[in-house]
Model the fold of this input.
Amino acid sequence: MQLNEVKFEDQVPVDGYGPGFFRVADQVYNGAMFLTAEGVKPWGGYADLTPLIDSVGTYDFVFVGTGADIAPVPKDIRETLENAGVAIEVMSSPSACRTYNILLSEGRRVALAVLPV
Done:
């Protein structure tokens, strides 16, 4: 079996996560975060949609991590994002981080909005 090193060109992956934090580019971020090619921004959760909407055009879709378990995004939040042109895919935060990294390694334009586990 041949192993190939994955190189991330324009955007950094999630290095790790744990109770209440995420690690990106060797920096620890406590609490929820929003990650795009523009970098890491704090995210206030569903009450703070501004970072997701302001960054429309820099990504094709955003993975929304709902914490340790998958949970539906409230209907009004989903509608607000969709009306602003934000395409979302909802999953647990661990799954969102892994999927984000995989698609990032393929050169896809993705973003990540995650609540901590």
Observations:
- The chain has three helices and eight strands.
- The chain has a mean pLDDT of 92.
